[in-house]
Design goal:
two-stranded antiparallel ribbon, 4 strands, Amino acid/polyamine transporter I, mainly alpha, 65% helix, globular
């Protein structure tokens, strides 16, 4: 067996020449890792979720629980996930060979991020739809008169009331603006419920197909290609955000929007829901519990200071969310002034902000097509790098599990293509006339409360089974000689006490405040999901978390179900020499037990194993 000049490992001898096993990639530059983290985690949630939560939960007062949870929950969990991947140089299931009894965490995270990739690309599909529709002299949602508009469409509700000899109050709940009708009737062609799926929207399907082609082209060569693309996709949105902020700040009513955004309502801090929203926002915006941070960290060199990057990321992520609030509320202040409404009446969160509120505001600006193109290009770029890394998280999990199969020739590129195609097929129900109901089902159940539970199990696994002192030593080995090592004891307090309490408290409170999924549509009764739809949602949620105990039980029984096996499953499956502390030398591990039972030799008898870690891929 020989190592080729290109870093691949080839089998030599009398047998015919075989395909080489490509060496596992690492980041080309140290900055690539930080940029990838920012690109993945800083996305659409910062633009449409944080500002809305800030308004909803007391304005400036909401920043107190938010920044508190960044310190005790966001940074500690973010760094823990990255450090595990970097220490093991693996992603997904293989990363959790650090403590085999909890290897199911890797599988649970992979399933969650698979679901996330499926429905997140639907948002990109809608953004591409609006982006292409903006290349016109007059935006199609500026006025009525199109074939998708109804008789109740109006750009001026007061004038319509006069023309119909009716009072404005009597028409409340009947009239719709052209922006809403474009979204509901043209883009979605939305049906009456989950049981009325209707036909596939071919224009949306084409946008979905185009979106997946873009994603594939950017990640087909792994982190070498996606890392270069993210120099554009992760940085250019900030240019567009700055341009939009400057433009919005000149609008009439912008100052009112900023006051509304920042004015603190201290009484809201007494409401537990405010604290729940702050906690869940930390998980969403930091991408914790999805396995992607572990995958990104696994491409770092062993001595990379990812602790420093974790702190920088937290600062950039929080600053981006805060900046996005100014962009959103300056335009909402303008809208409220134009419509003679309160800002609370025009403020929305989620898709309603990106595809109804902001297009409505843009339509009132001079040169509206240009500003619309700019806004949706920003949305696309914010979403694309998040999608890149999300898909990479799934791919890394599988490739690290089967390296000898998928790291040969162009098999990895082919596997990435198959993965994208499977996700595209899974998303097709979301581009039907009932697709919005399916989208909401995925969004509400597959990654909301479950990631809190995953984060809690990660902390328990490392702190109380693997050993917090051992993990602390591992982190010191990777950080090296840096002044930052003296702040690690704070991480120990968080990992063992503060962060587990944070995760479980937010999980319990969110469970207490749970309500069945509904969908609100303008001028229609609130749609309540049928029981069978809610059941599907809970099945989707359970399909990930259930693997945490199941995999642990399976491995325990498979290896003999003895106390010795349990102790071995709380140690790393196998470590390379550079991963070992002095006290780890000669430590017995699960791999040793398996070798004794099979009668095989030590892995260092195989030079490919010593270099690449091949063979350490058992489930």
């Amino acid at each position: 067996m020989t190592t080729q000049d290109n870093g691949a490992v080839a089998v030599s001898g009398g047998a015919p020449k075989q395909e080489t096993v490509h060496k596992r990639e690492t980041w080309g530059r140290a900055f690539d890792f930080l940029l990838a983290c920012i690109g993945f985690s800083v996305g659409l949630g910062n633009v449409w979720r944080f500002p809305y939560l800030c308004y909803k939960n007391g304005g400036g007062a909401f920043l107190i629980p938010y920044f508190l949870f960044v310190l005790i929950g966001g940074i500690p969990l973010f760094y823990m996930e990255v450090a595990i991947g970097q220490y093991m140089s693996k992603g997904g299931l293989q990363a959790w060979n650090i403590i085999p009894i909890f290897q199911g965490i890797g599988l649970a995270s992979c399933i969650i991020v698979f679901f996330l990739d499926v429905y997140y690309n639907i948002i990109l599909t809608w953004a591409f739809y609006y982006f292409f529709a903006s290349f016109t002299s007059e935006l199609p949602w500026e006025d009525c008169g199109h074939d998708w508009n109804t008789a109740n469409c109006s750009t001026d509700f007061a004038a319509t009331a006069v023309s119909r000899n009716m009072t404005l109050d009597s028409l409340t709940g009947q009239l719709l603006d052209p922006v809403t009708e474009f979204w509901e009737n043209k883009v979605l062609s939305i049906s009456s419920g989950l049981d009325q799926m209707g036909v596939v929207k071919w224009d949306l399907l084409l946008c979905l197909f185009f979106s997946w082609i873009v994603v594939y082209c950017c990640i087909c060569k792994g982190i070498k290609s996606s890392g270069k693309v993210m120099y554009v996709t992760a940085t250019s949105p900030y240019v567009f955000m700055l341009i939009l902020l400057i433009r919005n700040s000149t609008l009439d009513g912008a100052s009112d929007g900023i006051k509304f955004y920042l004015s603190p309502d201290w009484e809201r801090l007494k409401d537990t829901q405010v604290w729940v929203d702050a906690g869940t926002q930390i998980f969403f915006s930091s991408s914790i519990g999805l396995g992607t941070l572990t995958a990104l960290g696994s491409y770092n060199k062993f001595k990379h200071n990812s602790y420093r990057d974790s702190i920088i990321f937290a600062l950039v992520n929080s600053a981006t969310s805060f900046l996005a609030g100014f962009i959103v509320f300056t335009i909402l202040g303008f809208m409220a002034k134009q419509q003679n409404k309160s800002i609370g009446d025009v403020a929305e969160g989620g898709p309603g902000l990106a595809f109804i509120a902001y297009p409505a505001a843009v339509a009132q600006l001079p040169g509206s097509p240009f500003w619309s193109i700019l806004f949706f290009l920003m949305v696309i770029l914010l979403g694309l790098d998040s999608q890149f890394v999300g898909v990479e998280g799934v791919v890394t999990t599988v490739v690290d599990q089967f390296p000898n199969l998928l790291r040969k020739g162009y098999r990895k590129e082919a596997f990435i293509g198959v993965t994208c195609f499977v996700m595209l097929l899974t998303a097709i129900p979301m581009v039907t006339e009932g697709g919005m109901y399916v989208f909401q089902l995925f969004d509400y159940y597959t990654g909301s409360r479950i990631i809190l539970l995953v984060g809690f199990f990660e902390l328990i696994a490392i702190s109380y089974f693997y050993g917090i002192r051992r993990f602390y030593d591992n982190c010191c080995m990777m950080i090296g000689k840096s002044w930052m090592i003296y702040t690690l004891p704070y991480m120990l307090v968080c990992w063992t006490v503060l962060t587990p309490i944070f995760c479980m408290t937010i999980f319990v409170l969110s469970a207490i405040n749970y309500s069945e999924l509904t969908y609100e549509r303008p001028n229609r009764p609130v749609y309540t999901y049928p029981q069978w739809g809610v059941t599907i949602g809970w099945i989707l949620a359970a399909s990930s978390a259930i693997w945490i105990p199941l995999v642990g039980i399976y491995k325990f029984v498979k290896n003999g179900a003895t106390m010795e096996v349990f102790k071995l499953m709380c140690r790393p499956y196998f470590l390379q020499p550079h991963q070992r502390r002095p006290q780890d030398e000669g430590e017995r591990c699960l791999y040793d037990l398996e070798m004794e039972r099979t009668g095989k030799g030590k892995p260092f008898d195989n030079p490919a194993f010593a270099e690449e870690g091949q063979g350490n891929t058992k489930f």
